[in-house]
Fold this sequence. Notes:
Layout: E1 2-5, H1 11-20, E2 25-27, H2 37-50, H3 55-61, H4 71-84, H5 88-98, H6 103-119, H7 127-138, H8 146-158, H9 164-179, E3 186-190, E4 199-205, H10 221-235, E5 238-245, E6 249-252, E7 255-258, H11 292-295, E8 311-314, E9 318-326, E10 333-338, E11 342-347, H12 348-351, E12 354-355
Parallel strand pairs: 1-3, 1-4, 2-3, 4-5
Antiparallel strand pairs: 6-7, 8-9, 8-12, 9-10, 10-11
Helix pairs in contact: 2-3, 2-7, 2-9, 4-5, 5-6, 7-8
Amino acid sequence: MAVLYRINxxxxxxxxxxxxxxxxxRVVGGMSFYERKEVKDIIAYLRLCVNHHDNVSLRxxxxxxxxxxxxxxxxKIEQExxxxxxxxxxxIRRICKTKSSSQAVIDKLDLFxxxxxxxxxxxxxTASEAIKSVIELTAYAEELEEQRIQNxxxxxxxxxxxxxxxxxxxxxxxxxxDESMPGDAISLMTLHTAKGxxxxxxxxxxxxxxxxxxxKSADNEEEVYEERRLFYVGLTRAKDILCLTGARRRxxxxxxxxxxxxxxxxxxxxxxxxxxxxxxxxxxSGNGSTDKGFARNKAVVYAFPYKTGxxxxxxxxGIGVVRDCYGKGEDLKVCVNFPGxxxxxxxxxxxxxxxx
Length: 356
């Protein structure tokens, strides 16, 4: 099974949802969100903010962004640390105090010490606020390309509502899970990466204007054509089942915004698809009127006899798990995954299924 998306930025929430559900996955042709350099760098700063004696984090960011503290200076710090039995942070303070290096090096180390001590004041902040402050204090984003800056914005979103300690605990868990992912897993990748591959089941997520087609190509006919071709590549990756999903509201590039369905959906014949729109309840005020903010969201709701995920027994293939139920009336069909047999699509009136 594969989940395809237009830009790498979309993978973070999918990764977190799969982890929550205990579903193994792998990121193909790229790296997990929390394994990206800029994400690991900012997390290292947060760890150092909480614990100045975190040697691993200090090594990672002592010269990131570039502040003129090279490998020779770091070697000297490590030698002092081993000789005195100190953390690297305390070794730096001792070098500055005893002036056991050139004045130019001491000045740079002194600035770094002041930066780390200054970040100690962030401990009472939320994780999202702390990330923003670290980026500003270190000028980390000044020389980054747009994609990496967007990743940092996404990191801030992922940290919302968490304390620094809670966020760091979650980041540690994520890293350990990434290291222990088994071979059989859902594949996550961009549409570009999916070229030449095929999967029995494919989800393409974010079928919305601004993502597919990407907003940078919206005003250029040739680029929109390329986006349409890329979308077609995604569609044809599915051997058996293809699911196209979109959101009515999405937080993207740190802004929450209303989304419109992709123009490409209009080109797909409705009779060849099963269309489902998420139900949105209408809120009724005390005077009996309907809240306009909810009433404008029209929804199509079908009452299906089987919910996705429920278990059923078939007289020939045994116990299976319902993956989908679709159609109407006499044409109701159910898609069931039978271990050892595979996915079967059955007409409900003939299927002889027994709910377990």
